[in-house]
Write a structure and sequence with these properties.
The complex is a heterodimer. By secondary structure, chain A is an all-beta fold. Chain A has strands at about 5, 10-15, 20-25, 35-40, 45-50, 55-60, 60-65, 70-75, 85-90, 100, 105-110. By secondary structure, chain B is an all-beta fold. Chain B has strands at about 5, 10-15, 20-25, 30-40, 45-50, 55-60, 65-75, 75-80, 90-95, 105-110, 110-115. The chains are: A mainly beta, B mainly beta. Chains A and B meet through strand 5 and strand 10 of A and strand 9 and strand 10 of B.
Chain lengths: ~110, ~120
């Protein structure tokens, strides 16, 4: 059974801090891993990672995948209160396979 | 591009009534759409996979007669919650997979919050 595990489940930081969110997975026939940010509504897409060791960056957010060790991290630097959200990691195992989501990391950034 | 809409965004209904939720891919074709349910402070739980022109595939524990899914076209899937009860109150989210994409990139609708009184 495919499994995606995220840690920590929740995190409280101060504005300006840097955070690292973790995602480990056991997915058969792995193809890609996705990160989403969920605020009050549906998740919004952040990154899709398919290759090991290649960092993807978008502003203060970056993510990298390690296919050998079966994990990914999502980094947020210089956090802002607007970064407060649940960050979800998900892995599909093939083209038509549904996403398997982790439980998410609830990040709270306080001023 | 790759916008998915849901309608309605929220609905309140009486126990015993049926509610239909629509999921549309606005600027792309989606042969496959997925329906999720999310309870407060919990992750997304897949309910079913909807394929255009064929029967939906339901996850274990999801009653297909209670949650009717129809994927009549490449841009529309509907979820009907039949004889809704208060325990069906939840946040329902659909996602659509871009047809022809080699990787499983899905885009989510904004969700529908269902409250059953």
């Amino acid at each position: 059974e495919d499994k995606v595990v995220q840690s920590p489940l929740s995190l409280v930081v101060h504005e300006g801090d840097t955070v690292t969110l973790n995602c480990s997975y056991e997915v058969t026939n792995f193809r890609s891993l996705l990160w989403y940010k969920q605020e009050k509504k549906a998740p919004t897409f952040l990154f899709m990672l398919t290759s090991s060791g290649i960092e993807k960056k978008s502003g203060r957010l970056s993510s990298i995948l390690d296919k050998k060790e079966l994990f990914s991290i999502l980094n947020i630097t210089a956090t802002q209160t607007g970064d407060s959200a649940v960050y979800l990691c998900a892995g599909p195992s093939s083209g038509n396979t549904p996403l398997v989501f982790g439980k998410g990391t609830r990040l709270s950034v306080i001023a | 591009g790759a916008v998915v809409s849901q309608h309605p965004s929220w609905v309140i209904c009486k126990s015993g009534t049926s509610v239909k939720i629509e999921c549309r891919s606005l600027d792309f074709q989606a042969t496959t759409m997925f329906w999720y349910r999310q309870f407060p402070k919990q992750s997304l739980m897949l309910m079913a996979t909807s394929n255009e022109g064929s029967k939906a595939t339901y996850e274990q524990g999801v009653e297909k007669d209670k949650f009717l899914i129809n994927h009549a076209s490449l841009t529309l899937s509907t979820l009907t919650v039949t004889s809704a009860h208060p325990e069906d109150s939840s946040f329902y989210i659909c996602s659509a997979r871009l047809s022809g994409h080699s990787y499983n990139e899905q885009f989510f609708g904004p969700g529908t919050r269902l409250t059953v009184l």
